[in-house]
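REVIEWER CHECKLIST
Item 1: Sequence provided? yes
Item 2: Single chain? yes
Item 3: Sequence as submitted:
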Amino acid sequence: MSPRPQGRSRQVAVLVFLIFIAISLLTNILGPIIPDVIQGFSLSLSAAALLPFSFFIAYGVMSIPAGLLVERHGEKPVILGAFALSLAGSLLVACVPGYSSALVSVFLIGVAMAVLQVAINPLLRVAGGEEHFAFNCALAQLLFGGASFVSPQVYAYLVAALDPRAVKAGALALLAAVTPARWPWISLYWLFAVLSVTMLILVALFRFPAVQRTGEETVGSWRLSARLFGNRVVLLYFVSVFAYVGSEQGTANWISEFLSVYHRVDPHTKGAMEVAWFWGLLTIGCALGLALLKLLDSRKVLIGASLGAMAALTAALFGNTAVALIAFPAIGFFASVMWPVIMSLALNSLPHSHGAFAGILCTAIVGGAIVPLWIGQIGDHFGLRAGLLLLYLTFGWILGIGFWARPLVRNQTIGHRRDS
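Item 4: Structure as written out by the authors:
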């Protein structure tokens, strides 16, 4: 039997998969709880939108610094620090419920998630093996999507289980004792605190392999990043990632509130499930999209997905209740292939400095902060339906990428392979 290559560790690879699940559970819970936050704290749509803003602005602030921290201190200390921040953020809103503490809490958790995203991909490449990296990345994305589907259902379960009329025992009784009766959604943050402590213990127990970061994984200096921002291609794809994440979060964060306001759908049950199915179909669509990319040019796939998303958005905003309940998750299905196509087109359109370029693209995740906020601000003045019309602009930009993108390397399709 040949010795295992240096740095390989199935246990560490499994740990990375668990971290992906934890990131997903902590990241995608904001959409389902927004109706409760609005009602519980008597907020305007703009004030409620500051919660996802506080979370995703952390990506804009921390993506490049996180890469520099990992390069200087290594993966394990940085991951431990990230989960310590996540624990602090979770305990803050759990122990001191309130709008201000919630804003600080989601920002701290957002910083933690940004740091984790930067740290774990190179770790997965080394621990799982370079030759398995593509498969492991796809598996990690599948686990991420699955946890996104589960997260709103956990919220719905906890809200129902903590109802004052429900019989409680064991852990539920303990959770009810520390959760304000009028704000049952706070129980999620006690759960997140337990999750953060569990991950801290697990990470502390593991010995991490040494990671030699490739050129694509090296963030580069601030000076290099500033110089790249003067490149037209970099700017175009920065806006493209901004538009995609803004579209994704702008949809997910307002589904439950829109259905509650316009269709009287209970946000604790059906509304939460709609958000779950948005993420579920986004995961399923990603798998189907991978097959399409073996048959068609990625730009054509992006054009079709964008047109499908805008058609589903139209049905969701202007259809009756039955249509809206189908159309909102369908937006996730069509949006599923956008992220990998945009990222691959971006990195294949620049012949150098891929690590620094990737750091800039991660910074553009700040679109998930700003677009939902703009939707809320428009919604306060003209109604949430009018605010969600902004998504036509972001999806429209993504549609345009399919026409103006000029990658140096095209995605290989079955037909293209035969021709060559």
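Item 5: Key structural point noted by reviewer: The chain has 20 helices and no strands.
Item 6: Recommendation: ____
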